[in-house]
Amino acid sequence: MSPPIRRPTYPLAHATRRKPRRIPLVLRFYKGAIHNLIVVPVTLHSLFTALVVYLDRNVWGALGLPPTIIPSLSIVVGLMLVFRNQTSYDRFWTGRNCLTTVGTCVRNLARSFLASARGKGADAQLTDEERADTEKIIRVLVAILYAIKHNLRAEFNIPPASLAHYPPHARPNTSRPVSRAVSRRNSSEDGSFDSETLSTAKNEYVALLPDGLMGYEDQGLGLPLQLTVLVESFVRRGYERGWFHGPQASQMTVQINTLVDAYGRMETIRSTPIPVAHLIHQKQVLLLFCCVLPFATVDDFGWWAVPIVAIVAFTLYGIEGIGVQLEDPFGYDKNDIKMDGIIEDTRQELMVLLDEWRTKVEGRGTGLGGMFD
């Protein structure tokens, strides 16, 4: 009897879930491949090589260059591509570590809040206001993860406070996140937005936010920072209620500062592209090398120079295309960080903690087997 196959459970279920590979990676040309980015340059270089071979064989007959020119150019091309890919993967890896830091800080804060939120005395119960306040802040912690994700993807989050003076029936439907690029394309000259376009965006975490919360993104304040103010205020209220002592409250503030710092580093990756001078020179060097290669191979290989140049162009432009995809790792591409799954896993964890804590404070159980005692 074969041993049972381990199935992923809820811890990391969304982030690590994989489908069985039915096609070997060497034969895959979609779902994560970068062939769509390089098919045009590879095709053009192949056609150019065919033209060079035709002219060399049938028109002029003396288009060949010494093959010794190739090694000197290949060294430069290799060094530039190595730098490009190493820099891009470093941005990808740093972004993933920063997301882990943000998730760790949210977990630590939620654990401390739930374990410390209790009434004074042996049999004292939390008031309705204190219970509602604690539940609200746990949801805010989860909402911070979604707010960071949407801000890194340049998407709106919640209605701006500048719309507060409008009657409720006259406000644009901005209760769901929407891409700023889409919003600009659908905005009129007076600044209003197409509500139909806004209503088609995702609605992942609006229910986690406090009722009536308005945003200030149109004034330059990101929602993640706005939500951390609510968390900091809860730490102060917990200290005044006697839930946290001074050093503990100080450590919670450190966790909030660490979260904001990690988000700031993710913003740096998102808003700082590779210098354009490097990108221009790299593209030009790649183009020069692949255009010189047909002249250096036509005498020795004839028509075989066409597939040879196509293979070389496929390799070099493919490496460059990988660097392009990894440069901004916070989007929706197959090769980007699995932000959706990672955040869903953290949300699941915190919601279980919150449900068990609610079971404990309502007297319906011990809460995680007595863990909240």
TrEMBL record:
Q: Which UniProt keywords apply?
A: Ion transport, Membrane, Transmembrane, Transmembrane helix, Transport
Q: Which residues cross the membrane?
A: 29-54, 60-83, 301-319
Q: Name one molecular function that GO assigns to this entry.
A: chloride channel activity
> From which residue to which does any coiled coil extend?
none
Cite the residue spans of the region called Disordered: 163-196
Q: Does the keyword Metal-binding apply?
A: no
User: Which taxonomic lineage is given here?
Assistant: Eukaryota, Fungi, Dikarya, Ascomycota, Pezizomycotina
Name the source's superkingdom. Answer: Eukaryota
Q: Which GO terms describe its cellular component?
A: membrane
Q: Where in the cell is it found?
A: Membrane
Stated name of the protein: Uncharacterized protein
Per the record's keyword annotation, is Membrane included, yes or no? yes
Q: Report how it sits in the membrane.
A: Multi-pass membrane protein
